[in-house]
Amino acid sequence: MTRRPGRGRFAIVIPREGYFQIGYVARKGTDSRLRARGIDAFRCDVAELLPEYADRVVELVLMDDVKLLDVRLNRLRRWHVEGLLCIGDAAHGGRVRSNVHFSS
């Protein structure tokens, strides 16, 4: 995993089998501004943070190719009650799963 800081943002590269996944981390609330600037500006931002991948940003065709993962920190005071155990949330493969176990 490679991390690259930038001003108010950073990128994380996760090597996957056959492709690279890039996490572009920006300040909360900036998604609409990033999208308004358009795909060309976003490609430039990614290429600036990750120059070794600059030749690959053309794979991003539309801003619809860029997915937002809104991360929040929420805490329960109690993680269990009779018949219910909450073990948190996890994001896997572009889907958000809620990990809740109901006992019978």
Task: Kindly describe this structure.
This protein has 104 residues and is of the alpha+beta class. Helix content is 17%, strand content 38%. It contains 2 helices and 6 strands. It has helices at 31-37, 39-49; strands at residues 2-6, 9-16, 19-26, 80-81, 84-92, 95-102. The strands form 2 sheets. A 3-stranded antiparallel β-sheet has the order 1-2-3, with no helix packed on it. A 3-stranded antiparallel β-sheet has the order 4-5-6, with no helix packed on it. Strand 4 and strand 5 form a beta hairpin. The longest helix has 11 residues, at 39-49. It is elongated, with a radius of gyration of 18 Å. The termini are far apart. Mean pLDDT is 77; it is low at 90-104.
Radius of gyration: 18 Å
H-E order:
EEEHHEEE
Assign a percent range to the helix content. Answer: 10-25%
The secondary structure category is alpha+beta
Largest sheet geometry? 3 strands, antiparallel
Quote the average pLDDT. Answer: 77
- Shape type: elongated
Strand adjacency order, main sheet = 1-2-3
Spans where pLDDT lies below 50 across 5 or more residues: 90-104
- How many individual helices? 2
Strand tally: 6
Q: Quote the beta fraction.
A: 35-45%
Distance between the termini: 41 Å
Q: Oligomeric form of this entry?
A: single chain
